[in-house]
Each structure stands twice: as C-alpha cells, then as structure tokens.
Design a protein that fits this description.
The chain is 43% helix and 15% strand. It has 244 residues and is α/β, with parallel strands linked by helices. The chain has one domain: Aldolase class I (TIM Barrel). The protein is globular.
C-alpha cells in the first residue's frame, strides 16, 4: 500500500477552519504545496462541509473526513455507508468496540477506514483521571490490533507509537500521525508529538499538519519545507518505507 503513495500525498493538511470561505482561502493559498486535506468537526457546523468536500475532489485533492464516528454498530455502519458515496479517501471512527468497527468496515466500499486510537492531546495522566490505568502506548497498540482484526485499513496514532504499531500489524496498514510538529514549532495543545523525520522513520504512512502551516509567516514555504522533509525521510529509509 504505502510504496505506491505519491510522496506529496503523505502530507495531509488539516483544514480546521469554521467556514467554507476560509477553507477555500487556504486551498487556493497553498496551491500545489498540498495535495491531501483533512476536514473535520469545526467545518461541519458551517453548512459548507459537503460543498467543500466536493470542491476539493473536483480540484484533484484527496479528502480525509475526520469526524470520528462512535455509536452503536448499526448507526456507524449507516454513516459509513452514506459517506462512501462521496469522493473520500480516508474516514475516521473510534477504534473501540470490535462489533462497531466490523460493521463499519463492511460498508466502507473503496473508502479507507482509520481507527482513532488515543488522541495526541491525551497523556497518561488524563487516561488515569478517566479511569484507565494503561499507558497510552499500551492502549494504542491494543486498539491498533483490534482495528486491524475488525477489517479497518489503518489507524490514527501518535508518531511515538508508530514503530510499535508497525511491528505488530506489519505492512499494508496505514498509520496516520497527527500532532506532528516540525522542529521549532509550538506544541499547542498536543502532548505526544514527534517531528516529521521521526514519524516516517517509525513507520508512518502519512502525517497530519495544521497550525504549523496555517500559522506560519509564509504558509506555502512551511508546507514545502515539510514536503522536503518527507522526501528526505523517505530517501533515508527506503527499505523500511517501501515495506509498509
């Protein structure tokens, strides 16, 4: 799977904006520096969500729908079935409850389903406060295996856990890493972050970057710098990357 991914499609730019106008602004501004976009919950309330989705696809961009479905199996399966009619490459559901994941996987069609393991804004202290004593890395690995066994195409996980996931699930399974921070970038609300090179060295297939691009003095230059770092990381570990 991963060996056939065009290198410039390994960067997914997060369009975490509140309106269609803002989304269009960023797509126009970034131009050819971005080929893959994530649209999530912030845009959903604008009423422009599916308009933007269609416009991205019409412009030749790949689309990652990040709505993190989590409900009873029949409801999630129905949501995935409906979304599969749209030109969507990736869609997220929570990597909990095997029956829910399996029901969703049965309806995904050509769309790839990613299981969200543990949010990169959560650390061990927050898990413990929520009643889960497990270390985030152990919980991520447990959920990644469950996602694979339920028929999902990959997971969303921190780059800190990517190497363990890759070792456990082997090739042909997407590992999409959010919370990636190029050297010198602020962590913002992310707690389990890595840089670009570390994510790919660990076995990531894609990275998601939002604020370090959108908040940069020159967003196009920031995106192109990340593209260059991705190309360098792929060149530095060709055997490992091609075996994903």
């Amino acid at each position: 799977m991963a060996a056939s991914i065009p290198p410039r499609e390994r960067l997914i730019v997060a369009l975490d904006v509140a309106s269609g106008a803002e989304a269009r602004h960023w797509v126009a501004r970034l131009g050819d520096s971005a080929a893959f976009y994530k649209i999530g919950m912030e845009l959903l309330g604008s009423g422009d969500y599916f308009t933007v989705l269609g416009e991205l696809a019409a412009a030749g961009k790949r689309v990652f729908v990040d709505l993190k479905f989590h409900d009873v199996p029949a409801t999630v399966a129905g949501a995935v079935r409906s979304l599969a009619r749209w030109p969507v490459s990736f869609c997220t559901i929570h990597a909990q409850h095997p029956a829910m994941m399996a029901a969703a996987a049965a309806e995904k069609g050509a769309m790839q389903l990613l299981g969200v393991t543990v949010l990169t804004s959560i650390d061990a202290g927050e898990l413990a406060a929520d009643g889960d004593p497990r270390d985030p890395a152990a919980l991520v690995l447990h959920r990644a295996r469950a996602a694979r066994d339920a028929g999902l195409d990959g997971v969303v996980a921190s780059g800190r856990e990517a190497a363990a996931i890759r070792a456990a699930v082997g090739p042909g399974f997407a590992i999409v890493c959010p919370g990636v921070r190029p050297a010198g970038s602020a962590a913002d609300d992310q707690k389990r972050t890595v840089d670009v090179a570390a994510a790919f060295a660990a076995g990531a297939s894609h990275i998601v970057v939002g604020r370090p691009i959108r908040h940069a003095p020159d967003p196009v230059a920031a995106a192109e710098a990340i593209q260059a770092q991705i190309a360098s990381a792929l060149a530095a570990t060709p055997t490992r990357i091609k075996s994903l």
